[in-house]
Design goal:
This protein is an alpha+beta fold. Helices cover 39% and strands 20% of the residues. The chain is built from 13 helices and 13 strands. Strands 9, 10, 11, 12 and 13 form a five-stranded antiparallel β-sheet that branches. Strands 2-1-3-4 form a four-stranded parallel β-sheet. Strands 5-8-6-7 form a four-stranded antiparallel β-sheet. Strand 1, helix 1 and strand 2 form a beta-alpha-beta unit.
Length: 361
């Protein structure tokens, strides 16, 4: 077999989330045969490359974004150095630290004039107060670990009286956090993304491949909920806001495509789900993080993901989208055609990445 792509996947001991629904099929369509190997053991990628280097054109670095440890990361980077200048898919081996460690992404974005929250890192409780005085981040802000997801190990601090409890709680989280590339403690300005007139808070997940925005969607929750993610939070009462904010998302994807793609490129990546909010105090886009393994469902029906759309899967929302497809697909073309249709989504993703990497190789 003349393999064209090495997919450096999660360890077999971790959750089998290496390929989303239709993804491997669409990558193979545009790139050619794929060799799946353990990307976290420190040697299998280099071993596979040396065996097939006459035909390999790309390496897809796709480890576990939440659980990758420093020895695993170092092993990935060392293999990449030994292999040399082979185009990557998703993110470079070295650049993966920008995915797991939020402060690394924020530093890169600030260096490249991409708007993201003000922040600082600190060593311990005493150092927090030293850094707070230097950086002067106003209330409200978040105290959190740099590599947690979905609001875990994160505390909202609204005033001076809440600081100490948050700091003490995070110290305990830090001690029990387990091994990652490098776990640090952060203070991050909490951006005002709520609309009190509509009693809604929102965020946007936008999917970038190469130099194209492929698709995206808005996530809406109650206005007093600081964490605007949809997992388990969607309510039928949100439906009007869902339509309004997804219409806004379509406009954002069209108007800010270059800036959104740049936010991915400067992190040494070419395929990410980008999380963005609108700062209602300045009316500016504010970038929060990127996610290479953005949720789109898996071929073995893992978890709650299921047809027809896999994500979203809330029964009320799925029924609403189906019943109103004729009207809404005109209003939300990228959402309907490039996201709800997961086969088309990954077809466009890998077509775009192939074109993007071909130009640069």
């Amino acid at each position: 077999m003349e393999y064209k792509v090495i997919s450096a996947n999660r360890s077999p001991q971790r959750s089998p989330k290496n390929w989303r629904v239709f993804e491997q099929e669409m990558m193979q369509k545009h790139f050619g045969p794929i060799l799946n190997v353990n990307g976290e053991d420190g040697y299998s990628v280099l071993e596979a490359f040396n065996k097939h280097k006459d035909t390999i054109s790309h390496i897809r670095w796709y480890p576990d974004p939440e659980l990758l440890t420093k020895p695993e990361y170092d092993g990935m980077v060392n293999q990449s150095k030994a292999i040399g200048d082979i185009p990557y898919i998703t993110n470079s081996a070295k650049g993966f630290i920008n995915i797991q460690n939020k402060e690394c992404a924020f530093k890169k974005w600030k260096e490249n004039n991409i708007n993201c929250p003000d922040f600082f890192v600190y060593e311990n409780i005493n150092d927090f107060y030293i850094q707070q005085e230097k950086h002067n981040i106003s209330f409200p802000f978040l105290i959190r670990l740099n590599n947690s997801v979905s609001g875990k190990h994160t505390y909202v601090v609204n005033n001076q009286n809440e600081i100490n409890n948050a700091l003490v709680s995070l110290e305990k989280d830090y001690i029990n956090s387990g091994s990652r590339i490098k776990t640090t403690k952060m203070c991050i300005k909490l951006i005002n993304s709520s609309n009190p007139d509509l009693n809604v808070n929102s965020s946007f997940r936008i999917h970038v491949a190469g130099d194209r925005v492929i698709s995206g969607y808005a996530r809406v929750v109650d206005g007093n909920d600081w964490l605007a993610i949809t997992a388990g939070k969607f309510k039928s009462s949100h439906i009007d806001n869902f339509v309004n904010y997804n219409t806004l998302c379509e406009n954002i994807m069209n108007e800010y495509e270059e800036e959104i793609c740049k936010a991915v490129k400067v992190l040494d990546s070419n395929h990410q789900g980008v999380d963005i909010i609108i700062d209602n105090d300045t009316n500016e886009l504010c970038f929060l993080e990127v996610q290479p393994t953005y949720a789109s469902g898996y071929p073995n029906g893992m978890g709650a993901y299921r047809p027809p759309y896999y994500n979203p899967y809330d029964p009320f929302l799925v029924n609403f989208l189906q019943q109103n497809e004729q009207e809404l697909s005109k209003l939300l073309p990228r959402y309907y055609h490039n996201w709800l249709n997961k086969r088309n989504h990954f077809d466009l993703v890998y077509k775009s990445i192939k074109e993007y990497t071909d130009v640069r190789s």
